[in-house]
Write a sequence for this structure.
């Protein structure tokens, strides 16, 4: 018998920090948006991890931005530990993580405790955008109860 768990999702919220004085190459006003990271149904008997992607997009307006970058950090979520993120359905937990690379080897976090941030280029005139892919993974064979599992992360963009 195969049990499925509905729905499994991670909400990504945004926080934009103003440019640091040393990074005056981008006199920008930026916003961030994301696509949903919705894992869908989780099959606890599947022998392989469940992978999904989401996109983080930074949209900027400026007179011009040349050779400027933005660092994108993700919070740890409710677990408080970015290397061991977990979604919850009440008191039940389902482990997952978000990675900065498609090989799922670099945990996307705040740059501390073995995690990395993602850097994107902010180059353009008047209005421009830059995107990064977030690679989500739920490890296989987790024995969890049926429920609607979720977690919320905060995205911090520094430019």
């Amino acid at each position: 018998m195969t049990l499925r768990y509905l729905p499994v999702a991670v909400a990504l919220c945004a926080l934009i920090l103003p440019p640091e004085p040393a990074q005056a190459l981008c006199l920008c006003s930026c916003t961030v948006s994301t696509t949903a990271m919705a894992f869908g149904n989780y099959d606890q008997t599947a022998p392989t991890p469940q992978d999904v992607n989401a996109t983080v997009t930074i949209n900027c307006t400026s007179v011009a931005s040349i050779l400027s970058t933005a660092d994108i950090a993700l919070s740890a979520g409710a677990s408080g530990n970015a290397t061991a993120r977990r979604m919850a359905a009440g008191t039940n937990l389902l482990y997952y993580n978000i990675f900065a690379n498609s090989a799922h080897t670099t945990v996307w976090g705040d740059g501390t405790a073995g995690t990395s941030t993602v850097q994107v280029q902010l180059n353009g005139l008047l209005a421009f955008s830059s995107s990064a892919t977030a690679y989500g993974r739920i490890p296989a064979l987790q024995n969890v109860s049926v429920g609607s599992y979720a977690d919320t992360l905060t995205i911090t963009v520094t430019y």
